[in-house]
Amino acid sequence: MAAHSIKILVILTLEKLRILLPDTMYLKLQFRLRMGYYPDFNNPKTFSEKLQWLKLHNQNPLYTKLVDKYDVKYYVAKKIGSQYIIETIGVWNDVESIQWDILPNSFVLKTTHGGGSSGVIVCPNKFLFNRERAKIFLKKSLKQDIYKTFREWPYKNVRKRIIAERFMKQVDGSPLIDYKFFCFNGIPRFLYVRRNTFGNKSSLVNFIYPDWTAAPFWRDGDIPSSTLPEKPQRFDKMLNIASKLSEDLVFARIDLYEINGDIYFSEITFFPASGLLPFNSIEWDRKLGDMLSLPQPFSSYKYDR
Predict the structure, then answer these.
(1) How confident is the model over 221-256, as pLDDT tens digits?
(2) In whole angstroms, what is the distance from residue 42 CA to residue 33 CA?
């Protein structure tokens, strides 16, 4: 069996044993398997280590609302204005409660507790939509648990629901672009741009500094583009919004769209790739870690979780 296959098997075995292990031990083992070294929770240095530390110790009840794809809209609307919110068509507690008849010809369905593109269904044409297949997918997605799998505390008490949103598109037919701002202690330090909406692994990506120059780092699985994408028309406003939404947060990734010249909120993420996707070098992981100031002093926290 190839080394990669053995690694995947061990990771899957660890995840099956997750309920038997305390958080700290589980995260240390998971980190070692995925990142190649054991994290130091007493003196975290790399960005990836610090994200694990925040999973264990930054358990702000507000975060549960902010990772809920329905509840977060009210928070964001109050913070920056309702004009940045994508219209909600409906929200339901289970698949059988979905009111299919009220859905327009095009729409997006997603679970309120999913991360990234998981649990997302895009329907550009209702007449070609396979409802039964969608129901099977959503039922499976509702069983996913980011807290149990990755110990991301904000997801521990999120209500598992299904939300329908307005289908957003560019008038010229081009794909939507997600602008993901990495904000350290309320300051957007860089952003991640993927030139497609729903996570195609083969798409070209860029890490970009706020002055719209290329950042010299990337993560495993990314295909760095040799050219920068076009700068959004309202980029300065997007930077301002990212700063505003992250101003009271230790670390947050603020995801925004620019669609037909208007800015829309996408989501708030506290643990990009759960802090378990290696960068192109550990030196860069350490440099990014230097950007993030954790609550002090470390000695006031206990590590017996």
Answers:
(1) 887 777 888 999 999 999 999 999 999 999 999 999
(2) 20
